[in-house]
Specification:
This protein is α/β, with parallel strands linked by helices and about 220 residues long. The chain has one domain: Rossmann fold (3-Layer(aba) Sandwich). It is about 40% helix and about 15% strand. Bound molecules: adenosine-5'-triphosphate.
């Protein structure tokens, strides 16, 4: 099974890298593909350019044989819709290849606002990593009814079931909580605080060499 991990990565940090590593282990993934969003359409314009965000993802992923970086959303014009990305990957990798979209719990809660979100289930599984601050028991309350219904119909108890089908199931699984967010890192940098030990050293160096996020 191949994991697909999209994000703004503005900048990439250890919360992202740890999610990918633990997903690879928990779901027995042969690869995690990091796909930085070119033009995220659900949020403000990123602070770093698409090329800079891509470069930071490349630096952070270098040396991990499980990780691959895919720049298709940055090369593609227009808003970065996951449904388009997954359709392309499905066409390239064939109908039988199990694919799994990797999301943090906060991202999953917003899923029903995504462009053609119901079509995602025909293209990939979705694996949701618990993130700090999102207790599973309080989820149902914060979830829109359509998403609750999708979860009730598609949730599977264990990762084994995912590999037996190419798409369509939802797995919720725990990861080591790391309460790191890109927005917190950006705010800290504006105040002159170093994100050392929140991001890999190669990313730290890239940020300082390019004077990112300082104003
Ligand atoms: P921002 O603070 O700017 O919103 P972010 O740190 O949440 O950014 P994104 O690039 O928006 O980073 O997130 C990409 C994906 O990574 C999302 O699915 C998100 O849920 C997940 N993610 C981000 N940070 C963590 C973390 N610390 N632990 C687990 N998952 C995370």
């Amino acid at each position: 099974m191949i994991g697909i991990f999209g994000g703004t990565f503005d900048p990439i940090h250890f919360g992202h890298l740890r999610l990918a590593q633990e997903a690879a282990s928990a779901l027995a993934l042969q690869q995690v593909r990091f796909i930085p969003a070119g033009e995220p359409w659900l949020r403000d314009t990123p602070r770093a350019s698409a090329q800079q965000r891509l470069e930071m993802v490349r630096l952070a992923c270098a040396g991990n044989p499980l990780f691959a970086v895919d720049d298709r959303e940055i090369r593609r014009r227009g808003p970065s819709y996951s449904v388009d990305t997954l359709s392309e990957l499905r066409a390239e990798l064939g109908p039988a290849q199990p694919l799994c979209l990797l999301l943090g719990a906060d991202a999953f809660l917003g899923l029903s606002t995504w462009h053609r979100w119901q079509d995602l289930f025909g293209l990939a599984h979705i694996a949701v990593a618990h993130r700090p601050g999102f207790a599973q028991s309080s989820w149902a309350d914060s979830m829109p009814p359509a998403l609750q219904q999708a979860l009730a119909a598609r949730q599977t108890a264990g990762p084994g079931a995912l590999a037996s089908a190419p798409a369509g199931q939802i797995l919720i699984y725990p990861i080591t909580p790391l309460d790191i967010s890109a927005s917190h890192i950006r705010t800290g940098l504006q105040q002159g605080k170093s994100p050392r030990y929140l991001v890999p050293d190669v990313v730290l160096n890239y940020i300082s060499q390019n004077q990112l996020y300082s104003e």
